[in-house]
Amino acid sequence: MNMSYLDPKIDLVFKRIFSRADLLLDFLNAVLPLDAPIESLTYLPTEQAPQVPDMRFSIVDVKCCDQNGRVFVVEMQMLWTDAYFSRILFSGAQAIVNQLSPGDSYQSLCPVYSVTVLNDVFEKDPDEQDCWLHHYKITKLAKRGRHGKILKGLQFVILELPKFNPKTKTEKKVTALWLRFLRDTGRSGFVPDEALLSYPPVADAVKLAEFQGYSAVEIDRYQKHLDALRNEKSSLLDARTEGLEEGVKKGLAQGVKKGLAQGIKKGLAQGVEKGLAQGVEKGLAQGVEKGRADVARNLLALLDDEAIARVSGLALPKIKKLRAGT
Fold this sequence. Notes:
Elements: H1 11-18, H2 21-31, E1 41-43, E2 59-66, E3 71-77, H3 83-97, E4 112-118, E5 133-139, E6 150-160, H4 173-184, H5 194-198, H6 200-208, H7 216-299, H8 305-312, H9 316-324
Parallel strand pairs: 3-4, 4-6
Antiparallel strand pairs: 1-2, 2-3, 5-6
Helix pairs in contact: 7-8
């Protein structure tokens, strides 16, 4: 473990950095698609949303509101499961519900932003590989290609750190600095470069992640948290692998069953087709043979056997049998 800088994505460090309102404010202004910038923040009690099973150590959160009453629920999520979508829906909805006391007007509700910094990948679509910011709104279904109306009040933003790789000048400088800080700090051999240290808020965050700023007790807590997180990751990977293997087995069984059914159907069709062809061929041959025999029978009293054979096409032995009455 790199002991020069601790990982800011871990509970102890994340909360130390973002318990400073000025740093959290700067970070949110950098990463959120806001209509108006945040000017001040007030921290609120964090809701204890039900934990995702086996994910107790992978989720860290802080909650605050700004000068306009907008509420921000910020979570650092180390691992991803499908259940996490349900969690952020619950947390966002709870942040709305908790704004009202009995008798309050619904008009007093302020918008809620659920912000997830994800140290994992949840969007596997190849077309989304370069998309690291996912912004969800509640919108009316669009017609004829037009954008639907937005139901304001609740928005979700998910930032996929592993995908973040600024390549163009269009990337916002401050956004890039904050996400680079979260992505890289704590990695083995990490040394903050001039760009990170030249921007005061990020430079302060780097300072707060320095190993020497933590007591022995805190470092012990940090290490135990890392160990627990590794166990969660291992359990999650085992579950994913088991699910994948089960899916492969099920898919193979279904494929064999379907292939067998198709094979039987195809074989039966081919058998019927072949049998029909053989039947037609046999029937035609029998009809021709019968016709020749009828012609030969009518000529018995007029011609000799060889002449009858030439006229009817019937073989001599069969003509002799006809003449003998057998």
